[in-house]
Design goal:
- This protein is an alpha+beta fold.
- The protein has 2 domains: 168 residues, Collagenase (Catalytic Domain) (3-Layer(aba) Sandwich); 93 residues, Jelly Rolls (Sandwich), CATH 2.60.120.
- Helices cover 33% and strands 22% of the residues.
- It contains 9 helices and 13 strands.
- The strands form 3 sheets. It has a 5-stranded mixed β-sheet with strand order 5-7-12-9-10, with no helix packed on it.
- Strand 3 and strand 4 form a beta hairpin.
- Helix 3 packs antiparallel against helix 5, helix 3 crosses helix 6 and helix 4 packs across helix 7.
- The longest helix is centred in the N-terminal third of the chain and has 27 residues.
- It is elongated.
């Protein structure tokens, strides 16, 4: 039990919630069935299902507990499903409720005979049968981008009575862009549900409706370039206090690797002002308000320089 809980903590859950979970025995999927799976593979899959069920049960409670006035300001929801609209919010909440119900009450069939270079595939015509493929066994229980927990949740969203989600895009970068540019598509994309659930960035979405800062923002000075290094998936946070009578641009230049640039109007990152996530050496965003919060995220391990240029 302690080992399982430590993995849940690593997935980014809040400490107060984990304290509750430590007193609860995970609910096994009812009569999970396996085909072509070794004993070790069965144990790995059962652990993944148990962890996925704990994950989605917590999410269901968070959706139910979030007061209506705060729903449009959830950083976690906004990151993966874009601008708030009540019907889309309700759809996402209902999908996680359905996943939780399936994991608690239905038989999950796992077929381990797949040797394709995929993580898994849902047999949508045979609820709830999931083919576990060769790449799945290289994953950890929880983790960034791909994991056992995330894969189970991803595949379950494909079934028609849960969501009927598609694979419109793959990966955190494209899924986040989908949420920003086409939120109506994000709510029918399986990866967006996966990344929302695993929450590897530990974004706030607490049941009391509080909006929490995503981290400490270091101040940037005008015309004073700063150089830094980031590992893959890492991020740095900055803030810019603008002069009211001047306009400017924040510019990030990659000397190695690829970083992306995001700006926000507030420290909770609940809404986005600008995204520059090109593969070019330079990304930039115009500064349009008196105080701007800046996120630099490494798509690849990167060396970069950031500066604020005044016009």
């Amino acid at each position: 039990m302690n080992q399982f809980i430590s993995r849940v903590v690593f997935a980014g859950f809040y400490i107060t919630v984990v304290a509750v979970i430590t007193f609860v025995t995970p609910v096994h999927a009812a009569q999970a069935q396996f085909s072509g799976c070794t004993i070790d593979q069965r144990q790995t899959l059962q652990t993944a299902v148990d962890a996925a069920q704990v994950t989605v049960e917590l999410i269901e409670k968070q959706f139910a507990a979030l007061p209506a006035p705060y729903r449009a300001r959830s950083p976690r929801y906004s990151r993966w499903f874009g601008d708030f609209r009540p019907d889309r919010f309700d759809k996402v909440a209902e999908v996680f409720t359905r996943i939780n119900t399936v994991l608690r009450t239905n038989t999950i069939h796992f077929d381990c005979a797949c040797t394709d270079r995929y993580y898994a595939r849902a047999r949508v015509a045979e609820p709830y049968t999931i083919r576990i493929c060769s790449l799945f066994w290289n994953l950890s229980l929880s983790g960034r981008d791909f994991s056992h927990i995330g894969t189970i949740i991803h595949e379950l969203t494909h079934f028609a009575d849960i969501s009927g989600a598609h694979d419109l895009v793959y990966g955190t970068k494209l899924s986040r862009q989908l949420a920003i540019n086409k939120p109506g598509k994000a709510v029918i994309n399986a990866d967006n549900y996966e990344y929302f659930a695993t929450n590897s960035d530990n974004l706030a979405f607490s049941g009391d409706g509080r909006i929490l800062p995503i981290g400490k923002f270091e101040p940037l000075k005008f015309n004073a370039p700063r150089s830094a290094r980031l590992p893959e998936g890492g991020m740095h946070l900055y803030s810019v206090q603008n002069f009211p009578d001047r306009s400017g641009t924040v510019v990030v230049t990659s000397s190695a690797g690829d970083v992306d640039l995001y700006t926000y109007p507030s420290a909770d990152a609940a809404s986005l002002l600008c995204e520059s996530s090109t593969s070019n050496v330079e990304d930039q965003c115009e500064l349009k308000q008196n105080h701007t919060f800046v996120e630099v995220r490494a798509y690849e391990a990167s060396d970069y320089t950031i500066e604020v240029r005044l016009f």
